Amino acid sequence: MSSRRRRREVSPLTSAGLIRFYEGKEIEVIKISPYMLILFAAALIAFTAIAYLIGL
Predict the structure, then answer these.
(1) Which of 18, 34, 39, 46 has its CA 20 to 30 A from that of 3?
(2) What residue segments make up the domains of the chain, in order of their start?
(3) pTM above the 0.70 mark?
(4) Which residue, among 22, 1, 2, has the nearest Cα to 11 in the 3D structure?
(5) Quick one: CA torsion of 40, 44, 45, 47, rounded to 10 degrees?
(6) 19 contacts: CB under 8 Å, gap ≥ 6
């Protein structure tokens, strides 16, 4: 089969007028380093533990 005759596979959602999620507009994402993520998680755990012990 030549490359001209090959048809792009169309999913049912795209034929219904809906687009696949990766074909949409690019969105901005928040970039957080792994170190900051672990630090934030540890702080949240510590805050929750302290609030539980105090009785808040």
Answers:
(1) 18
(2) 30-56
(3) no
(4) 22
(5) 130
(6) 13
